[in-house]
Amino acid sequence: METPSDAAAYPAHWEADVVLRDGGTARIRPITPDDAQRLVSFYEQVSDESKYYRFFAPYPRLSDRDVHRFTHHDYVDRVGLAAFVGGEMIATVRYDRINADGRPATGPDADQAEVAFLVQDAHQGRGVASALMEHAAAVARERGIRRFAAEVLPANTKMIKVFTDAGYTQKRTFEDGVVRLEFDLEPTEQSVAVMRGREHRAEARSVQRLLAPGSVAVIGTGRAPGGVGRAALRNILDSGFTGHTYAVNHAFPEGGSTLDPEGVPAYRSLREIPGPVDLAVVAVPAAHVPDVVRDCGEHGVQGLVILTSGYAEAGPEGREKQRALLRQARSYGMRLVGPNAFGLINTAPAVRLNASLSPRLPGAGRVGLFTQSGAIGIGLLAALQERGPGDGAIAGVSTFVSAGNRADVSGNDLLQYWYEDPDTDVALLYLESIGNPRKFTRLARRTAAAKPVVVVKGARHSGTVPLGHTVPTTRIPDSTVSALMRQAGVIRVGTVTELIDAGLLLASQPLPAGPRVAILGNSEALALLAYDACLTEGLRPQRPHVLPFAATTADFRAALARALANDRIDAVVLTAIPWVAEGSSADPEEIAALARALREAAAEGPAKPVTVVHLAMEELAGELSGTTGTTATAATGEQGEHGEPAEPGTTDRPEAAEDASEAPEARPAAPPRIPAYPAAERAVRALAEAVRYAAWRRESAVPGKVPEYEDIQEAAAGADIERLLDELTADTEPHRSVALPPDEAAALLGRYGIRVRAALPAPDPDTAVRAAEALGYPVALKTTAPHLRHRADLGGVRLDLPGERALRRAYEELTDFLGKPEELRPVVQAMVPRGVDTVIRASIDPAAGAVLSFGLAGAPSQLLGDMAHRLIPATDRDVAEQIRSIRSAPLLFGWRGSQPVDSAALEELLLRVSRLVDDHPEVVGIDLEPVVVAPQGLAVLGASVRLARPPATTDLGPRRLPVY
After folding, report:
1. How many CB atoms sit inside 10 A of residue 525's CB?
2. Of 615, 601, 589, which is closest to residue 522 (Cα–Cα)?
3. What is the pLDDT of residues 192-246, one digit of tens each?
4. pTM for this model (two decimals)
5. Which of 145, 35, 168 is CA-nearest to residue 97?
6. Residue among 203, 186, 54 nearest 127 (CA)
7. Beta strand pairing status for 364-371 and 335-337?
8. pLDDT per residue over 490-520, tens digit each?
């Protein structure tokens, strides 16, 4: 868009795509003089009643003066934003800065503005005003406005609700027949919760529209069998899709026809289809996609699945084509899966949609699946089909999306949908890149509190994202990503096989109450392998109970029943090898009887997870998963006289699950299916992930706290930061960080109760002596040159110097050995009590947000990378776990008879650093090294701080769809 010539610079960063309440999208941007005709057309479509509510009087049309006033803004004191769909204006918001008397004003001293909205009647109820409210508030805060005022007629209840539901601190008065509302614009806990709740509902609804359409058109259906379009159409029909299906190809006869042998209505273009089309599957060459998207938008299509390739995966030119495609789709209010997508699947009986290139619709089940790779999607679906084909089986899928280049719909959107989806118990994701890690961890934490989220991430070590994925670069290593996922409750696994192994166990078994594992079976060797695997994974296995080689079905059932009834057992691993009679292999009927016995024992006993390890008994896995004819009754959900098992993902006993079924969101308990694995290590690894996840669920039920410290001077720190930024960034690029001088860094940290021990410069021996006398002996002499900092191994640090003579000798040795004083930059520091040297860092990653890091100083952190990371703001529970999660943690807690350090003081320091960064987004880097933690107290001996102007939008800013 061109910058208006008669106004301030056009604020392009205010432009945003948003998802509305009904799942459609809209474009929000500043109003410009070029919008004059759009404004007039918009106003003509607003009802007289809405106009009356806006102007408090009949106002049938806008005058030329009105149009000029509403389209010319300075983007500082007078701002107008509008929402657009399909290039048409559907809603506006405007604010004007006013003074305390309510008169127009300019300058920072006037921090209040009068705001007013107008929404086209046809789009009321879609949440447009709420979205505009969020963006107007963010714009106003950026321009120094701290409070909005609005006058509303009492009958305009919809607009009053927009203001009152926003969650801001409000003041409401009634005078002269008008309701006056005043509210502060500073985000509050309630306003952020309201914004994120709206974001969740809107994005979940947008995914639902994609997964449950009433009608689908395949655009690019070939006239002859074969080709991508014809295959996609065939898959939709073979899946038993319950809605209407259309074939579209510009080569079909004009006026409509029937495509044989499928018998599907066929049209030359979307415009010829007489009814609505909710979802379009696009399989045309990339050059024709823009025309197809235009036709879809004009026909009112709600979502697109773009199978076409040749976009960002093809290079820079393709990346620009992909961005243009996304802008075009969103301009019409459509969400987009792809391009270069494999497609989507919904197995719900009311939908049964296979709008993908997978030739088979997987069985219906409780697993939600998202992949960014079509190849991995094919592999996952095939593997699940092999582990448990058919509806109701252990490996059944609820929904599947393979997003390809992931230009729009991403794993974050699916997490929004799966969170409340009653048909999904477990979310499995294969990710090659994470476009918004901070939002991903936020959504994953919320989802993981309700159901397991299992992730495998590709492209971990390449340093680049795969072709086609245009995402912000991130500086954090893969180990940090893993730590942040663990903090959010995400189960991260290393391979696609482990993804399925963990997912099947979590989808079919209750969560374990602890790590105590019983191992039983008819093979001692297999039981010992399981025992060793349990120890490797940190579980607490009991001594294996080995049954006779010829143990009967009744023996297995009795052993499993006893193990489940044991209060000192939390989970069971059962191993089985076939009975081999002379001249024959295992009898299929005996295997089926064993599976029935194990499932019945699991159904009768307390709700505990059971896994089976089998060798040369592939039929047993099928019988246990509920997919073969001998167990068809269980697979269809019909229970025998032994009752129902507990619902997967819970630790409740059967009777508790029965009581819970009265809740509105409850569902009938799943049939007693048991996951089976061909190797003990795989079964135990999946069980260990369930144990760790269950522990996280229990701990997160009572969340940690961010403590309040009375000595923190937040306002004073904010004033210091503003002053320092004005002084230090005058000649730097916007948002570029600057390092604070050591004394300013120490002063800023002091505002948050973080005391940095003084380090006095020592450019010559005499100055060093005077510094030592001021500090008091004994002292330390150390260099601060960048290449020697924190390198005691190179001799740059001399400790416990008791007096002047020792100090002068150390100074002479230092300069003789390492270089001149001006190169070494020596300093003198008072000695502190002996302890363990640690390092604490806080940094802002452009993608992940604020991260708090901790480790031991020196080789453990620098050489071995032994650091622990947590998202900011960190809670007391987060930091307690953080200092105990590093591999070298025993050095802090009395290793080999040493005295434990003051862990409480260390945790408090971490919390204070977290608070400083969370309170002030301008603080983009803190480095405390070394922090010497003694048995009593600690000392911060070195500190550096970096500041930068914060970005205009953050995770607390208005909701918006990403554009990469």
Report:
1. 13
2. 615
3. 899 999 999 999 999 999 999 999 999 999 988 889 999 999 999 999 999 999 9
4. 0.87
5. 145
6. 203
7. unpaired
8. 999 999 999 999 999 999 999 999 999 999 9
H runs (alpha helix) in 618-662: 618-625, 632-635, 654-660
Lowest mean pLDDT among 5-19, 133-147, 763-777: 5-19
Amino acid at 18: V
Give residue 653's pLDDT band: very low, low, confident or very high (50, 70, 90).
very low
| Burial degree of 3 (CB within 10 A; 0-12, 13-18, 19+) | exposed
- Please, is 241 exposed, middle or buried when counting C-beta atoms within 10 Å of its C-beta (0-12, 13-18, 19+)? buried
Peptide bond before 261: cis, by omega within 30 degrees of 0? yes
Residues written for the chain: 964
477, 861 contact by CB (below 8 A): no
Query: Strand 343-346 vs strand 397-402: parallel, antiparallel, or unpaired?
Result: antiparallel
Could you give the C-alpha distances from 499 to 491, 509, 800, 934, in angstroms and in order?
9, 16, 54, 43
pLDDT digits 0-9 by tens, 890-933: 999 999 888 999 999 999 999 999 999 999 989 999 999 999 99
Provide the 8-state DSSP code for 793. G
Question: Is 556 in contact with 548 (CB distance < 8 Å)?
Answer: no
Distances (CA, A) of 402 to 207, 343, 389, 395, 482: 13, 5, 20, 18, 23
The answer on pLDDT for 337 being more than 60 is yes
Grouping H, G, I as helix, E, B as strand and the rest as coil, residue 932 is strand
Helices (H), 113-188: 128-142, 157-164
> What amino acid is encoded at 896 in this protein?
R
Residues 509, 687, 654: CA angle, nearest 5 degrees: 25
Q: Tokens for 531, please give them.
A: 């025992």
Strand order in the sheet with 147-152: 16-19, 25-30, 78-85, 88-98, 112-119, 147-152, 178-184, 170-175
What angle in degrees, to the nearest 10, is found between the helix axes of 411-420 and 189-211? 90
Question: Which sign does the torsion angle of CA 453, 349, 396, 304 carry?
Answer: negative
Its sign, for the CA torsion 593, 594, 600, 603, is negative
Q: What is the mean pLDDT of residues 136-147?
A: 94
- CA distance linking residue 221 with residue 284, whole number of Å: 8
Q: How far apart are the first and last CA of the chain?
A: 18
pLDDT for the residue 460? 64
Query: 698-731: per-residue pLDDT in tens?
Result: 998 888 999 999 999 999 999 999 999 989 887 7
When pLDDT is cut at 50, 70 and 90, the band that residue 858 belongs to is confident
Place of tokens 């926003």: 166
Round the average pLDDT of the chain to a whole number and report it: 89
